[in-house]
Amino acid sequence: MIPKTHKSRKSSRYSGERGTSLQILHSTMKWLHIEQIAAKLWDTYSALLSHQAMILAMNSSFVDPLIQFESQLSIIESTFKMLCSIPTLDTVKDMGKNEDDKEDLELLYRTIFNLFEDTLLMLVYKDLYKLQILKEMITWMNQESSFLQERAMTIISRVLSFASRKVKGYTSVDAPCLGVLAAELSLLCTHSDPSITQQASLGMYHLLCIAKCQNADTVKTANAKNERYMENSLPIPPAGIEYLPKILQQDKTKIAQNIGQALLPGLLTDFVWSLLIKIPLPNVTTAYEAAILLTLTLEYYAQKITMVSKIMDEIYKQLQENSSPSMKQVLLWLITLLTRTSPKKVIFHLMDYSVPANSTLILMWQAAGLESQVAPQVLKTILLILKGKPGEKHKIMVQRRRLSVDSVNMMPVAASQALSTLLPLKSYKKAVAQFFPQLLMALLLQQFYSSEVKLLTKNTVCYAQEALRTLLTCSGLQEVDSALKKKNCWSQFSQTLFHHHSVYLIAKTLSEHKFPQFPETLRYLYKLSVEDPRRSEDMVITIIFLTELLNNFFKDPFPEEFLSLFRNWVNDPNPAVCKLSLQKIATMAPVINESNAGIRSMAIRHFGELLQDMSHHTRVLNDLVIDSLVPLILFLEDTEKRVFQACMYTLEVCASSLHWFTTHLLSDEYYSYELVVLDICNNILVSHKQYITELLSDALGYLRSSRAYLRRASIILVGYFTKLSGHLLLKDEIEVISEAIDRELQDEDPVIVGLAKKTQAILQDITNRMTSSNIKQCFQRIFNTFYIKRLKPLYYYNLTCDLNISSMKDSEFNSKKADEEVENEDISE
């Protein structure tokens, strides 16, 4: 009879290795006669003793830990397969000839499994890292018969129980396999076999106890941060209360909640990953259970996931394969859950795929945009990406990038395409309204880069333009889109030469339709303009767009904030930026005839200050100054002294810039409106005669003014411009001017009537010298270009007998100088 040395296993447990070599030898000698009855059982027992010795020897050696683990895992796998090859306990007992043989055979059978369990205990006692073996055991176990599954599950549960007792009181535990092991156990907690479910739930309970000891402070902090994500979840046992194994049986929600709470972010990520890679498995039941657990975990604890990119890649891979419709919906919902807590990570990764996006990627975008509460964060991330310029080379190459041209940044193109998918979504309606100005300008800039992108990707589709049109449509601006289409704006944008004009058309059309987003758009443009300098081409687009909006919405002088912007841009090192600011400054002069004296004087003086700031840009400046002369001249007659002084100041700046000799006439001592007009006209004759007809047209516009002093001043200016350009005017043009002056003959102001009569006389004199034939007029026009008679005062308006003689002489000197310069110019021609 064999002594029952292993019947009292629990009492013989110890903290390290169980039993001694002497005890094992004693038992072995007692069982020698069994070899003849059950050779297979005996061979397995002998092999286990040998394997255990080898494993113990490795534990005591200085072998590299990784090599040691791999070798021990290989031995354990070999041992496990040997266990799988032995018959069931009932079959073994039937081999006995009598009751004693049957009892000895059963004891040997149980001893074999106990020996295997002891080996695992010794490994785990030495190093908790080797709990990884249990995960591999579950994989092997799932391939075997159910009777062995139950036995193996019992062993796994006991080893975990031993490990949980071992780590009690530890503040830190090195067990990196807990995540993947938890994934395997969670699936077994819902097994169809109750005995396996019971052991799996016990094992899960012990695993969670180990997880609690990994880093108590980290878990406490993480749980505090996660409370807001758990408001709608089922109650979770507090950290100070022991987990109840029963709640882990068949209740997937409780399993997911407890695992999500207990595991640290890295381990929870392993848990999620292990479940994710089971979804495409042929075993439908396993795939279904994994999908449910995965969804529930991310529902409550997606914010703890660290390897979002890796998970996104796996989801993309599975969606690309022949997944069932139901599983595709699960995978897409996972993206929605990840976006809910990590929108920036998800969006950046989605934009990192190759361009253009395929149908799978578009489905992923739609999933990411499913929930309205994260729409603002998603759009913020996309706007951040749109700050980049497509085609720019990366300073640091990232090995994992999947772009078709790895050295360049194509994420802005992907972001533009994504917006065409996201903006129409109902969940994004509010966010689109919130970020309209930012999206509008970002897409305008991206559209500007589209020609370069087309060369790079060989793609004829402009995704930025598609997104921009989608933005207009989704923002209630369908009529703007239609109007731009009629103006051929969208087709012009594809041509490099029309980029700036297309930006102008968009701003003008938005203004014409009184788009309701104007106030916030203007605020954003101002913010954009005062921020740190960006690319010069970005600034050009911004100035064009801002300028046109200001032209259409501000009839009064601009606020000081915008005037300072243009003053700064005048000195921009980029010539294009400087030129645009100069053009805008030139268009500011017409607004000085509105509102009241304070506004007029402020506008005129600001204009002069801006001209002073850009005085070194002579070549570009001169022509623009000429365009602004008429209102500056006319408002010299303003009844408010501050307006007069502002005009004097600004005209002095103009005269200095154009190298005219009128400065002395703009002082109070020598001032005479007609002499100033006479001198300016003579200077125009010398240097800018090509502008005379345009200036005449501007002056005619002021004859309709409600202010008498402006009508008086404009009649005088029209008279001088007509006298100067009489040789350039056709008979029909003279008739138009004459009709305008005739209306002034009915004015209530007798001074205006008198000035109008003198002007009519000038016009009649010009008409009398004209020939009747249009052809003759043209020849006369050409001939008169080479000879122009110098001008002298025509009206003697407000000129008294005691007029300063030196002023008259200076004026006549300038007129004579003008004649000489014209004659020299004629000779050269």
TrEMBL record:
Keywords, in A-Z order: Repeat
InterPro entries: ARM-like, ARM-type_fold, HEAT_Maestro, Maestro-like_HEAT, Maestro_heat-like_prot
Natural source organism: Erinaceus europaeus (Western European hedgehog)
All copies of domain Maestro/Maestro-like HEAT-repeats, residue ranges: 585-764
Pfam families: HEAT_Maestro, HEAT_MROH2B_C
Name used for this protein in its record: Maestro heat-like repeat-containing protein family member 9 isoform X5
Domain Maestro-like HEAT-repeats: 149-379
Gene: MROH9
